[in-house]
Specification:
Layout (H helix, E strand, L loop, with lengths): L2 H5 L14 E3 L2 E3 L6 E6 L4 E7 L3 H18 L4 H17 L1 H12 L3 H24 L3 E3 L7 E8 L2 E5 L7 H13 L2 E5 L5 H14 L6 E3 L7 H10 L3 E7 L2 H11 L5 E5 L4 E5 L5 H13 L9 E7 L3 H13 L19 H16 L3 E4 L14 E4 L6 H4 L6 E7 L2 H9 L6 E5 L3 H10 L4 E4 L18 E2 L12 E8 L4
Parallel strand pairs: 7-8, 7-10, 8-9, 10-11, 12-13, 12-17, 13-16, 15-16, 17-18
Antiparallel strand pairs: 1-2, 3-4, 5-6, 6-20, 11-19, 14-15
Helix pairs in contact: 2-8, 3-5, 3-6, 3-7, 4-5, 4-7, 5-6, 8-9, 10-11
Bound molecules: nicotinamide-adenine-dinucleotide (NAD) and 4-oxobutanoic acid (SSN).
4-oxobutanoic acid (SSN) binds next to loops.
């Protein structure tokens, strides 16, 4: 019995969704080296599965498979591609309980959220399964008699996709959906901690009729990430690279891709400000912050990282927030009834604990938490700090975990300046009942996405992405296929 079949014994309706080999050219394969690596269930701090440890050699095979498949896939009709994406959408929904459980066990995402993410991922397949039916070029008024001018959309080719662990299926679907809809093929390197979700996603894609080579998955250990990233970046047949992850890695990949002048899309880190004005509905702002900050136990790129509350509401807001956060239940992610799970691993807890301790040494006061968590090494106690100063890391670095650092402000001008005083610009939030102020915030906050009186902003219909060092390009929405196509100008003469 394998490690994975033991760990999932009796838990899945479809045990065959657990795949531990890579998926290349329509075949389930061991790594060429024969090596595997072990992934961990962070809730239980226990080994979960042994997965093929693929490397650059396997990646090259996957690129060749994707390139070969592209020659046929690019010529399929949008109706054909739409039917496959729509079937895949249905299969994801039919298997949401199993997929949610797999994701929850390997990432520590609370089970209800994990099942919600499966539905979010399916929405991307459905959306682009429809979108490709109406995606069109345009006619151009001709500048000369006897000529017709037009612009047509064509798939860019083989697309490399590197995805993070915090949304192991959602981020994959947000890339694979529009890419396949446009007629591109894909080579995916999932995050090392969460390959099982990506492989189960591929298994259902195979069942939906995605042809061999159109989507390839190369699981790998952390040690191979940079060589695989480099291979994907420098190989000329790969025409686009799309990455979701940290800004540090995004910059390395962008630089590497310059050597072959690939198209790149970068969905990178955030440092979202969350601003509560005195004129806000305070209970709604508290609820908005809890939803935005504690989603996936504080590990989403759009989580608020700097919370600014206007002086007149500071005490009341803090009191209500402490009460609300104290009510959140934390425990084993794949068991029902918990709002918070562990972090991705014990290393993340150690890193954040050091950030909290440093803040306290520099004068921060804990209103809640800041204590060792008895549940296990990967669990972080929800923590609320006040008396924050801007030299503390908690106020200037992305803290991927359940930590809220509350800062007080006096004026709109002051808070806007503080909120924009960063190189990051992914999401921003403001709570106010003054329409003029809400409008000023939406225009003046330097971010790719702004939530006004709302903490949850992600939706397949919305263009997702950041400005400044939070990224390049947008994913999802009606422009989501643009980055997977080239616009070709055609001028036809001799028609007079
Ligand atoms: N903007 C967004 O849409 C978005 C979404 C999710 C996460 N994120 C960001 O991702 C970060 C957290 O995820 P993470 O810790 O997994 O990030 P990460 O950058 O360490 O890893 C992301 C992916 O990159 C791979 N990787 C690591 N080093 C690499 C290299 N040198 N070359 C190629 N690939 C490499 C990893 O194996 C993983 O697949 C946060 O900063 C978060 O804000 C952004
Ligand atoms: O982590 C960032 C992406 C999550 C989302 O789509 O809201």
């Amino acid at each position: 019995m394998t490690l994975a079949s033991q760990a999932f014994k009796g838990l899945l309706r479809r045990p065959d969704l657990i795949q531990s080999q890579g998926y290349i050219g329509g075949r389930w394969l061991n790594a060429l080296s024969g090596k595997t690596y072990t992934i961990i269930d962070p809730s239980l701090d226990a080994p979960l599965a042994d997965v093929a440890a693929m490397t650059a050699d396997d990646t090259n095979v996957a690129i060749e498979a994707a390139d070969e498949a592209f020659q046929q896939w690019r010529n399929t009709t949008p109706n054909h591609r739409a039917a496959i994406l729509q079937k895949w959408d249905r299969l994801l929904r039919e298997n949401e309980a199993d997929l949610g459980l797999i994701m929850s066990k390997e990432s520590g995402k609370p089970i209800a959220e994990a099942i919600g993410e499966v539905s979010y991922a399916a929405d991307y397949l459905k959306f682009f399964g429809h979108e490709c039916l109406r995606y069109e070029g345009f006619m151009i008024p001709s500048h000369a008699h006897g000529r017709k001018m037009m612009a047509i959309r064509q798939p860019v080719g083989v697309c490399a996709m590197i995805t993070p662990w915090n949304f192991p299926i959602g981020m994959l679907a947000r890339k694979v959906g529009p890419a396949l809809a446009a007629g591109c093929t894909a080579v995916v390197k999932p995050a090392e901690s969460t390959p099982l979700s990506a492989l189960a996603f591929a298994k259902l894609g195979e069942e939906a009729g995605v042809p061999a080579g159109v989507m390839n998955i190369v699981p790998s250990a952390r040690e191979a990430a940079s060589e695989i990233g480099r291979t994907l970046s420098v190989t000329p047949t790969v025409r686009k690279l799309t990455f979701t992850g940290s800004t540090v890695v995004g910059k390395i990949l962008t630089e590497q891709c310059a050597s072959t002048l690939k198209k790149v899309s970068m969905e990178l880190g955030g440092l979202a400000p969350f601003i509560v004005f005195d004129d806000a509905d305070i209970p709604a702002a508290v609820e908005g912050l809890v939803q935005a900050k504690f989603r996936n136990t504080g590990q989403t790129c759009v989580c608020p990282n700097r919370v600014y509350v206007q002086a007149g509401s500071f005490d009341e807001f803090s009191k209500q927030l402490v009460k609300r956060v104290s009510e959140l239940k934390q425990g084993v992610a794949h068991q029902r009834g918990f709002d918070l799970g562990p972090l991705i691993n014990s290393g993340a807890v150690e890193k954040l604990t050091a950030v909290v301790e440093e803040a306290i040494e520099l004068g921060a006061k804990p209103l809640l938490g800041a204590t060792k968590n008895p549940l296990g090494p990967a669990y972080m106690t929800p923590t609320i700090l006040t008396n924050i100063s801007t030299n503390m890391r908690v106020a200037k670095e992305e803290c991927f975990g359940p930590i809220v650092a509350l800062q007080k402000f006096e004026t709109e001008e002051e808070v806007l300046k503080a909120a924009n005083n960063t190189e990051m610009g992914l999401a921003a939030y403001a709570f106010t009942q003054d329409l003029g102020r809400a409008w000023r915030m939406s225009e003046q906050l330097e971010a790719g996405m702004v939530g006004l009186n709302v903490g949850l902003i992600s939706a397949v219909q919305a263009p997702f992405g950041g400005i400044k060092q939070s990224g390049l390009g947008r994913e999802g929405s009606i422009i989501g296929m643009d980055d997977y196509t080239e616009l070709k100008y055609v001028c036809m003469g001799g028609l007079a």
